[in-house]
Amino acid sequence: MEPADNRDPFRRPLFTARATHAVRLALVGLVLVTTTAGVSVYHYYHSPYWSRVGLAPDQPVLFSHRHHAGELRIDCRFCHTSVETSASAGMPSTQTCLTCHSQLFHDAPMLAPVMASAEKNRPLAWSRVNTLPDHVHFNHSIHVAKGIACASCHGEVADMALTAKARALSMRECIACHRDPAPQQVAAGDVFSAHPARPDAAARLRLPALHARPLTNCSTCHH
């Protein structure tokens, strides 16, 4: 072979060896950064930081469902008064709290926000544990009427000292339940139970009929 003549512009390399090496390193770095970013985004959107599952938001009062619903067995409907008749379950008013706490522990520092709310005639600003996008319509009363237990979506709140989100409540979860709602149905008396019992085959025949086809129509949840 004839030795390369570096003075010939047609036979010289277009880029120097150093430049080629730099480009290769840049391409490797780009692949690493893109892969790392993709993995990070994937894990973020599948973590509690995004879904908030398992995280309990701060509340104006240190309220324990484990004490009230679990130990004292106070019915869900005592505080969430509109859950059977409205799309919203309703949040307890100050007067609801004072039904008991005007006599019990009313001097406790923990209940100072409740007393201040009553004195100033300002409602307690409860923080929502479960939120849905504005374009999603959810009706509590329909689910209750069809025998869907509170624990199916909210988890076993009677065991929670601080109420945390139990499920992601994603569209995938809702569609899966709407396609096969029967496993989530319980007897009417167990809808508000802390630990609802799943009915056997004979009892399931007495439950309200659920037809999966209309439940999977887009207009069911997106009005």
Molecular structure report:
There is one protein chain. 12% of the residues are buried. With 223 residues, the protein is an all-alpha fold. Helix content is 42%, strand content 0%. The chain has a domain at 65-91 and 126-221. It has helices at 17-45, 48-51, 65-71, 76-79, 94-101, 112-120, 140-145, 150-154, 171-179, 201-204, 212-215, 218-221. The radius of gyration is 29 Å and the shape is elongated.
| Annotation, overall tally of beta strands | 0
What fraction, in percent, of the residue positions are helical? 40-55%
Termini, distance in Å?
78 Å
Radius of gyration: 29 Å
H/E series: HHHHHHHHHHHH
**Average of the residue pLDDT scores:** 89
- Unreliable sequence segments: none
Q: Provide the β-strand percentage band.
A: under 5%
List keywords for this structure.
single chain, 223 residues, mainly alpha
Structure, briefly:
This protein is mainly alpha-helical. The chain is built from twelve helices and no strands.
Topology diagram in text:
Elements (H helix, E strand, L loop, with lengths): L16 H29 L2 H4 L13 H7 L4 H4 L14 H8 L10 H9 L19 H6 L4 H5 L16 H9 L21 H4 L7 H4 L2 H4 L2
